[in-house]
Design a protein that fits this description.
Oligomer: heterodimer
Structural class of chain B: mainly beta
Number of strands of chain A: 11
Helix content of chain B: under 10%
Distance between the termini of chain A: 37 Å
Number of helices of chain A: 0
Number of strands of chain B: 11
Structural class of chain A: mainly beta
Low-confidence stretches of chain A: none
Mean pLDDT of chain A: 93
Shape of chain A: globular
Distance between the termini of chain B: 35 Å
Order of helices and strands of chain A: EEEEEEEEEEE
Largest sheet of chain B: 7 strands, mixed
Order of helices and strands of chain B: EEEEEEEEEEE
Shape of chain B: globular
Helix content of chain A: under 10%
Strand content of chain B: over 45%
Largest sheet of chain A: 6 strands, mixed
Chain lengths: 111, 113
């Protein structure tokens, strides 16, 4: 079993749609959670950190459920430019700063 | 946005050559990381460093080596490149303290013929 599991997709949605991605992680000692965005053949870029109380950044909302070891990302009013792969990322639960990356969920927003 | 730089961006080279991939950051970050990523696959940690003169192997075994003589510089070396080393190599660093995210350089796309 992978330490961070995501549905690879692809998710094909029309512009303006709301789409949700989910992620589960296996290490209950993990303390830091992030969503990264990766465009094709590019480096991952931090989209947002995920906090226990949930947090929002414009059209993006992240939620964390520690009891279920589950993280979600909601994108509202999808834009063409949101097309990318979204990586769920969890720290190792130690002080090393090491991160575990999920394989990513691919989003394709169509006109 | 983090200031972390990788060179070269692309490298196509023959088997048996010695290669050094450069990674530099100007933020004074202690922790730095090297990842390997094949197309459509997840990132795998191959090396990391907590600071000067500290290097550790990552979760994925790699024939490459790294050094950390200066805080800002974390080069990766392949002594004798092989076609199996063809991949994208991504360098990252993170700010000290707390639950900080990692920030990535542009990556080096390496192709061994």
């Amino acid at each position: 079993r992978k330490e961070v599991e995501q549905d690879p997709g692809p998710f094909n949605v029309p512009e303006g749609a709301t789409v949700a991605f989910n992620c589960t992680y296996s290490n209950s000692a993990s303390q830091s959670f992030f969503w990264y965005r990766q465009d094709c053949r590019k480096e991952p870029k931090l989209l947002m950190s995920v906090y226990s109380s949930g947090n929002e950044d414009g059209r993006f909302t992240a939620q964390l459920n520690r009891a279920s070891q589950y993280i979600s990302l909601l994108i509202r009013d999808s834009k063409l430019s949101d097309s990318a792969t979204y990586l769920c990322v969890v720290n190792k639960g130690s002080n090393t700063g090491k991160l575990i990356f999920g394989q990513g969920t691919t989003l394709q927003v169509k006109p | 946005e983090a200031d972390i730089y990788q060179t070269p961006r692309y490298l196509v080279i023959g088997t048996g050559k010695k290669i050094t991939l450069e990674c530099s950051q100007t933020m004074g970050h202690d922790k730095m990381y090297w990842y390997q990523q094949d197309p459509g696959m997840e990132l795998h940690l191959i090396h990391y460093s907590y600071g000067v003169n500290s290097t550790e192997k990552g979760d994925l075994s790699s024939e490459s080596t790294v050094s950390r003589i200066r805080t800002e510089h974390f080069p990766l070396t392949l002594e004798s490149a092989r076609p199996s080393h063809t991949s994208q190599y991504l360098c990252a660093s993170r700010a000290n303290g707390g639950n900080q995210p990692q920030h990535f350089g542009d990556g080096t796309r390496l192709s061994i013929l």
